């Protein structure tokens, strides 16, 4: 049982482990009614520990202890203490073998931590603290051991038995059972342990490494998914060669395995040599996966593969260092995706996520530094701050050092710390040592929470020909942190002349060959930069390619934004200017009278985007996406979500009505014949035609409706089918919507990944996803409370994307979410805690909303036997 008053763990209290484990010998007997786990640990006292005669303390959770033996001698109950969450042996020798037998019930494990069953197969998830649900062990990442694992199971039901490393032995057992033994030569923390047993088909391929070794690549999936492996396998091979080329990292075992499982709390897991994936993050076919899914799969396969070096070979000392592996690995996978497709589009996607969701987290009650100083439940710290802001911090180091020095730094880091469990500070030190740069002040990015705000003002001195830019930074207070120090911020910028020409940035009068783009380094609370030889007031292009994860305030006029949209040489900033303009226009209409005019220049600029086919179409496809409701809410104070929704709809409808003919032409121009491809160009074409379709249906255009129905019926890929379905679902054509939903369901009812998309397109729609319909989805036979993907696709999509319905002024959306969180809390606390997120933002909203949101949080708080996971989120949200 979890105690009701969870403890806080502090970084400052870190102590090296008192005992080390050199080797682990595991034997799993798998049965339908449970599993017996035999574990033998080779333990020795840690010479670096000052706790001389410390008791041996092993972590455990939900285990039934059957026996304990020390150096082969069975211990009696008086020799040890089973505290439930710890097995304590008061006195042990310097060095010994400890054998423990535990009994667990994977078939009843709904938390999906440790060993559990999913669609008839056994599988594991040990990060962060799941190994303690399998056997007693020092469950902390700085205890690294070599594992040998023997799995025994019924041969007919579980022909495939997998664990980390190489299979070294296999054979038959009595009663139709068999076994396989695996040995992993690399010492690893127990969070990287994995086991899979099931009736799976195997897909094989090979990869020849840079040193000429042939690696066996194997994917294991349920037989019905055999045809959905190619994309992941190709992505894996691309990742392997990219990591050799860009980071000099070669794969180190002879086998690399990927397994797909349907019930999984997160996206995927980098277990050594045996990556386990959420089915939705690995299985794809043209017919069932959208372009976005193809790209996400490529990125996640790469991410998990890259962890083999950034995470497994060099791992984390403790969980406060989580961003050491996650921030770095997200940076690596985003570089990879940029190289595989369009770098500007990838940057836009990353920044959209960061600004919409990470900035919101950083401004909310769960705000924490990239390297947190404390936590209650570590699962709650797999956050956008650790992952996405952590990646931005590594990106800034990359930009400050340049690619060559950064590579020297990463080489040094991998060489110096191979086989060790280290800290974010060790990472930064390797970068300093390799480059000779001092990153002392830069380290504040790891320690201070909150998104820095840059207030930028300027003046033009026509007489002197000097343009002055003042940049002041401040970092808002966050829970437990105030009066923060200025951070080291790389700030990329350019200045444009009146014809759009880039101006040379002379920091000294008379400077020659001055570059047209500079990266200024901000280190003080305020800086003034002078640019010389400027003949007229320039238009500043600030924070190019989003060179730091900060908010920039500058009083751009709409005229200037329109100018940047068409002239900025930085594609990212062209997009950003368009977003700022659209935000400004929508914001000005929130709460405005119904007949208030929509900025006519917005229409003109969008017309230009739609009609000028000489523009980069991938960028245009992004520029046509209006800022999301979630982003508009993030930017607002006292937010009124339904009012923001109406203002955004207003602009969308106005654009669609004004550009109706252009949209039809755009749709037709981007209709393609020929084979389906997933190149940036083809993706852009599909995105453009589906945007055109969506806009036409928002205004009930009859031709749009016909095009949508036709596309829905004739599509040869999921992007187009889903594009048409989404457009119909979000339209007033109720009959077509219901028909399409029904047809789609009948066609794909056997495919859980597609049905998840079917659920979420409805739950996220203000037309098809009002509360009574959401309740109906929860009653649908395809819905399953035990499957996190289903919960996310209905409850998560409703509360996270269908914002006008969730923020219904009558409070019904909040009540609904509170109820679902409470119901999930007993079965899967990790998922329950994540679902709470929308409510934690209650302070952001106008009082009529925030009071009801707070009341919903209080109802969750008062539930009996609340998990530690939900306890932490709810209590921190209500505090202060
Ligand atoms: N390390 C995983 C990653 O690649 C994250 C992860 C997967 C995870 N499953 C989890 C974290 C379960 C906590 C709980 O990012
Ligand atoms: Zn990761």
Automatic annotation (TrEMBL):
Biological processes annotated in GO: proteolysis
Q: Which Pfam families match?
A: DUF3458 (PF11940), DUF3458_C (PF17432), Peptidase_M1 (PF01433), Peptidase_M1_N (PF17900)
Instruction: Please report the stretch or stretches of sequence annotated as the Peptidase M1 alanyl aminopeptidase Ig-like fold domain.
Output: 450-554
Listed under catalytic activity are: Release of an N-terminal amino acid, Xaa-|-Yaa- from a peptide, amide or arylamide. Xaa is preferably Ala, but may be most amino acids including Pro (slow action). When a terminal hydrophobic residue is followed by a prolyl residue, the two may be released as an intact Xaa-Pro dipeptide
Is-annotated flag, keyword Lipoprotein?
Answer: no
Q: What is its EC number?
A: 3.4.11.2
In this chain the Peptidase M1 membrane alanine aminopeptidase domain maps to 232-442
Q: Which Gene3D superfamilies match?
A: 2.60.40.1840, 3.30.2010.30, Neutral Protease Domain 2, Peptidase M1, alanyl aminopeptidase, C-terminal domain, tricorn interacting facor f3 domain
One molecular function GO term is: alanyl aminopeptidase activity
Instruction: State if Oxidoreductase is listed as a keyword.
Output: no
Query: What does this protein need as cofactor?
Result: Zn(2+)
Q: Where is the Peptidase M1 alanyl aminopeptidase C-terminal domain?
A: 559-879
Enzyme kind, highest EC tier: hydrolase
| InterPro entries noted in UniProt | Aminopeptidase_N-like_N, Aminopeptidase_N-like_N_sf, PepN_Ig-like_sf, Peptidase_M1, Peptidase_M1_dom, Peptidase_M1_pepN, Peptidase_M1_pepN_C, Peptidase_M1_pepN_C_sf
Chain ranges of the Aminopeptidase N-like N-terminal domain: 26-192
Sorted alphabetically, the keyword list is: Aminopeptidase, Hydrolase, Metal-binding, Metalloprotease, Protease, Zinc
Per its database record, what is this protein's job?
Aminopeptidase N is involved in the degradation of intracellular peptides generated by protein breakdown during normal growth as well as in response to nutrient starvation.
Q: What family classification does the UniProt entry report for this protein?
A: Belongs to the peptidase M1 family.
> What protein does this entry describe?
Aminopeptidase N
Originating organism: Marinobacter pelagius
Source taxonomy lineage?
Answer: Bacteria, Pseudomonadati, Pseudomonadota, Gammaproteobacteria, Pseudomonadales
